[in-house]
Amino acid sequence: MTDSDSTPRASTGADRAPESVRLRPAPPDDEISLWEVLAVLLRRRGTILLTTILIAGASAAYAQLRALSYTTEAVFRPQGSEQSSSELSALVSRLGVGVSGGVGEASPAFYAELLTSRELLHRVATRSWEVEGIGTTYLRDLLELEEETEAEADEEVLEWLAGKAVSVSTGRETGTVTLAVQTEWADLSVVIARYLLDELSLFNLDRRQSQAAAERRFIEERVAQAEAELRHAEDSLRMFLEANRQWEGSPLLRFRHDGLIREVTMRNSVYTTLMHSYEDARISEVRDTPVITVLQEPYVPPRHDPRRRVLIGLLGVVLGGVTGVVLAFVVEVFARPDSTDPARADFDRTWRGLAGSIPFLGRGRA
User: Fold this and answer.
1) Distance (Å, rounded) from C-alpha 332 to C-alpha 139?
2) Which residue segments constitute the domains of the chain, with CATH numbers given?
3) Which tens digits make up the pLDDT trace of 242-287?
4) Is the separation of the CB atoms in 192 and 165 below 8 Å?
């Protein structure tokens, strides 16, 4: 092989290395460098520091100057008439009748929803209260709401009660309900909590009495029907005995007699059970008044709620620092001229058009 044949191959191998270097991707121009970010933070450190100080100072001032609040708590456990409910359930199961509801209505979650319901809180919002040092007044006057009508003011009070003043939590394992009331007046927090418990007891009483009355009416109808069925079974047995005086000697008549005896016995058992349940329902309608069991009465808080200055101050520092960093980069973007950036040019054109559409700004720029 000649030198002229080997020379192109050598030159081709030599040319391959520069080609691989040319094909290597160059680093993108828009990649953000960590050193550039640190440079912006150092260059705009005054903006970051000033923003942090301002927001942290505002947070500390809010924590120090906000109105004091007083919170009282009451704990209770729903307690119903388990005896009457179990008797009714046993009765309807024997009669083959399905009855739904009853158990879930008396659960702690039900009472928690009831305490924060609009109807109950509306009574709190629209009635007058006795506050120590102020006298008899309404919540809309205490909160100094500036609404045009009393209805609008009461609506604001209702939102304040549901969103801030009244809170309810339930204990899943213990089955208890905790009611907390927070206002700027210690005695007002206590009387509102006691009023809610009283209204809850009244509702519970009315609901249980209504339920007992419904049970009595249901059993009363069944008593009349069971009595008629018992009389019919007894008449059938009497007519059989009158028509068959020598029934003992016939297997068929003996079988018929035993069936009638069983029918009378069963009808008499149902009638007796219904009569017992009917008397129990009549007593429950008048005397059985289930109430909630209050485990902890509302108490006058000995001191105001903590101001949480440290927590609010730390949150202010964090928020101020984040805001300062964002503001620093915004200032850096606007302060650095870059006419080659198409996005910046598009923003400048849009801003000039917006400024030109405003009379004062348009004449000033012209």
Assistant:
1) 51
2) 34-66+307-330 (no CATH), 70-296 (3.30.1890)
3) 888 888 888 888 898 889 899 999 999 999 999 988 888 887 777 6
4) yes
